[in-house]
Amino acid sequence: MQPDTTVLTRRAFLSASLLAGGGLALDFTIPVQAAVPAGASVLGAFVSIAPNGAITIMGKNPEIGQGIKTSLAMMIADELDADWAQVSVVQADVDPDRYGPQFAGASLSTPTNWLPMRRAGAAARDMLLRAAATRWNVPIDQIKTAKGRLIHGATKRSLGYGDVASAAAMLTPPDLQTVKLKSPDQFSIIGQPTRGVDSGRVIRGEPLFGIDTRLTGMLYAAYEAPPAHGAKLRSADLSAAKAAPGVKHVFQIQGAGGPGGVVEGIAILATNWWYANEARAKLVLDWDMTAAKGHSSEDYAAQAKALLDANAGIDFERSGDPAKAMAGAAKRIKSRYDYPFLAHATLEPQNCTALYQNGQIEIWAPSQQPQPGRELIAKELGIPLDKQIVHITRIGGGFGRRLNNDYMAQAAAIAKALPGVPVQLLWSREDDTRRDFYRPGGWHEFEAGVDGDGKIVAFTNHFATFGADGKSQRFANMAERHFPARLVPNLAFTQSYMKIGIPMGALRAPTSNAMAFCFQGFLDEVAVLGGRDLPSLILELCAEDKIVGDADAPDIAPKGFHTARARAVVEKVVEISKWAERPKEKGRGRGFAFYFCHQGYFAEVVDVSVADDKSITVHKIWAAGDVGRQIVNPMMAEAQVRGSILDGLAQALEGQKITFTDGAIEQSNFSDFRLGRIDRNPDVEIAWVLSDFHPSGLGEPALPPVIPALTNAIYAATGTRVRSLPIEL
Amino acid sequence: MNYTLTINGKRRSVDVAPEMPLLWVLRNELGLVGSKFGCGMGVCGACTVHVDGQAQRSCSLPISDVGTAKIVTIEGVGATPVGQRLQKAWLDIDVAQCGYCQAGQIMSAAALLQQTPKPGHEDIVSGMSGNICRCATYDRIQKAILNAAGKMEAVDAA
Ligand code: FES
Ligand code: FES
Fold it and tell me: Which part of the chain is the 2Fe-2S ferredoxin-type domain (chain B) (predicted)?
């Protein structure tokens, strides 16, 4: 379910037209699919400048708290030399022809939009300049722009953008590939700490989120889904639920197949969601649990142990002769690591609003990638794409949960059964916890050998995970050429697979959130074995300048791993945390970890103390990050880093785990799947390493290293090595 | 059953079951959607409102227990001096990420400052620990409360 990124950097296309009521409407498409006819008056154009100078920019991607609605508009407005105070940002509907990919995931919105957004802004500015040059009859290079105005210094004349917007609309747009962009020192909006464009509405409690959608005559729906993954409905008596207070309709929905779409169950619609949800207790349902049998977290853990014992994994990555090198090593170490399944627990439970009438459906979807949601509805419910209007709402937390569109298909299925009635489907917290696409658990055995200087000569990892036919299932995989592959002479990664009937998906920093803990924890053991510390071991592995993985591509942040960038963040965090002088006292210690994912590099140090009663206090965290040469919005960037770090700490320290027996999830609410609270809010010091690369995203890469930095710190404080999550000392 | 409530200074009448929690009266009967649903069992604080000045979890308060108490929600808290200062402080350092928890956070913070106008770190932790922020904006929540209480120099954003 991850977005296809191959099309994102293709040539963009621009068209200009007259705004209804006068002014410039600029549309552009990435990639080119349908250009708006020139001269047509356009509503909801990508960028529009009204005669009074007001600038409207469409927010093309879903806003999940990552600040993208603000930061993409900042990119356009800066190149346009707009007055930020005159800019408003409006959430766009789903329209792939106009906006190209519209998703919030994989920290890709910044890297994939960095140049296209700026080029659009620069193109608009270019057209305004040309219109002003004609108006004044002066050479274009004598005109300057600033804060939404065109200035001719020699004659002390100036015009607002709105004054020439209609004239600009008649000009041919420039070629987006060659339009001149600012140099970073010319930025006036990018790089400024900028408040979220919706923050005022948030703090006043105005309707913004999917769950806040209100339509006249709307009914509220609760949904009784199978109590266990794999369970099938044998029979249902709906009569008592139908008679419950406030209830208007109760009916069965047929499942369409997999858990990612319409799941079979009973829809209850009432005038108030509370009535609908209460009526669930009156349903008399007989579930066939046969297919759910055997899907138990304990069984998988036992199977994984047997697979690791058998040590017959399939090769995933191999170089040199690890067995021979291991045998010849001065010292060897072997360890096993594991981590549990996790839920996403977005604070806004899954919900979606839909209205079906006259063969057409209109949907209000809090989805991280609503475009595949439309395709799902077309496929499973037979409503063609051109009969769907999909509005994107603000989203109360994504974390990867809303890359799936099951709730969207479910709402559409309910609405389709009740033509003309607007329907809001809402899940209870218990539904949300039990019908997730979980971060898969995983089990690892590592072995490493070092020479007399503590240098790694052999390294192996055997990963017991979920999959079949010699392949791991998506999100139960590990990255190709995972660190330290290609940096150690003799190395083997092998994998063994188990079949699973529990839905799995991407959780913030997918795969990395788990791999970092295992690999960086084990590498810390290797460093200790070799009589050194982990920063020096990583620096040694990365000593030679090279790129592991994909070669750099033009116009986008590099995908491959640059050893030089790794060294720079390691050195930075060592410096700001004064690692070399770290205090060594009983019960208190510091740990370090480094990780590269989602095109970003983070090295982190955690200062922790462990009391006699085993309680853990995190005092401070230092984080050094490299996400390219430009931090677009420093305020939101720091918020993402802090949020990611606390998210990782909660995974490790709050006992977070999802367990299941015969396909039924055992956790239900925040009482047994606990999130971090304000009492664990350590000081976080962030330092940016500005490397000379295009910027990449920040939704994810700061999370993975904090967990091993914490467990390595616990080792430093106590001598106890944490090899299993969540932490139980 | 018919109930007449005083919400944000206005009288509103509803006809609902006595067990219906106040949250669902606000959100689904009265169109006041600022108070949010997170857990439905009193453990996340997203639904926090003031009942006679006390912070309460509206998801766990049956309408029949409200009686004549005065209810203030996020939609009305800006009319109080403390609410106004908090909302300004929240904007100045831009506390929100996804924003979903923030109504509940502000309502808990307002109740805290009404009782403890100059809170220390411990007061903030105990006053705010019932409110989950999944995005973990805790650092800025703490700063905004201190700013609103006049304890810190406000850090201004663009
Ligand atoms: S919804 Fe009321 S405390 Fe969570
Ligand atoms: S801002 Fe997202 S839950 Fe608090």
Answer: 1-77
Structural domain for A52, as ranges = 5-192
Are residues A452 and A376 located together in one domain of the fold? no
Which ligand gives the minimal distance to the CA of B44? 1
Domain ranges of chain B: 2-74, 77-157
Chain segment A477-492, per-residue pLDDT in tens = 999 999 999 999 999 9
Q: With a cut of 90, say whether residue A2 has pLDDT above it.
A: no
Q: Answer positive or negative: Cα dihedral of A54, A58, A64, A68.
A: negative
Considering the domain architecture, whether residues A636 and A511 belong to the same structural domain is answered as yes
Taking contacts as CB-CB distances below 8 angstroms, the residues of chain B near A650 are: 136
Residue ending a domain, choose from A426, A448, A471: A426
| Nearest in space to A660 (alpha carbons), one of A356, A304, A292 | A292
Does A33 score more than 50 pLDDT?
no
A266 and A321 assigned to the same domain? no
A319 and A409: one domain? no
Indicate the range of A102-116, A457-471, A568-582 predicted with least confidence. A102-116
A727 within some domain: no
By C-alpha distance, which of B132, B127, B105, B130 is closest to B117? B127
In a domain, A554, yes or no: yes
Which of A199, A346, A669 lies nearest to residue B41, judging by beta carbons?
A: A669
Please tell me the total count of domains within chain A: 3
Query: Which positions 73-102 of B are in contact with A (Cβ < 8 Å)?
Result: 73-75, 78, 87, 90-91, 94-102
Q: Which of A366, A508, A386 is nearest to A439 (CA)?
A: A508
Contact B39 A199 (CB under 8 A): no
Same domain, A97 and A130: yes
Q: Is the pLDDT of residue A12 over 70?
A: no
Nearest CB neighbour to B28, from listed A273, A399, A647: A273
Q: Which of A347, A348, A678 to mutate to test the pocket of ligand 2 (most atoms within 8 A of CB)?
A: A347
Measured from the Cα of B58, ligand 1's closest atom is 2
Domain assignment present for residue A600? The answer is: yes
CB pairs under 8 A between A and B: 181
Minimal CA separation from B118 to chain A, in Å: 18
For chain B positions 12-31, those within 8 Å of chain A (CB to CB) are: 16-17, 20-21, 24, 27-29, 31
The CATH code that applies to domain B2-74 is: 3.10.20.30
Is residue A538's pLDDT more than 50?
yes
Atom of ligand 2 nearest to the CA of B136: 4
The CATH number of whichever domain residue A575 belongs to comes to 3.30.365.10
A287: exposed, middle or buried (Cβ count in 10 Å: 0-12, 13-18, 19+): middle
- Do residues A413 and A478 both lie within one domain? no
Please say if the pLDDT value at position A40 is more than 60. no
CB A524, CB A712: distance < 8 Å: yes
The last residue of one of the domains, among A192, A226, A255, is A192
Q: Rounded distance, CA A312 to CA A317, Å?
A: 14
* Residues recorded for chain A: 729
Please report the pLDDT score of residue B158 as a whole number. 38
Chain A partners within 8 Å of B142 (Cβ): 678, 681
In angstroms, the CA A335 to CA A723 distance is 8
**Number of neighbours of residue A266 by Cβ within 10 angstroms:** 20
What is the average pLDDT value for chain A, to the nearest integer? 93
The answer to whether A678 contacts B124, with C-beta atoms less than 8 Å apart, is: yes
At residue A13, the pLDDT reads 55
State whether A533 and A593 are in the same domain.
yes
Residue of A113 and A321 predicted with greater confidence: A321
Q: Which ligand is nearest to the CA of A398?
A: 2
Neighbours of A614 (CB within 10 A): 11
Please tell me the CATH superfamily of domain B77-157, with its number. Answer: [2Fe-2S]-binding domain (1.10.150.120)
Determine, for residues B39 and A669 on separate chains, whether the beta-carbon distance falls below 8 Å: yes
Q: How many CB atoms lie within 10 A of CB B33?
A: 23
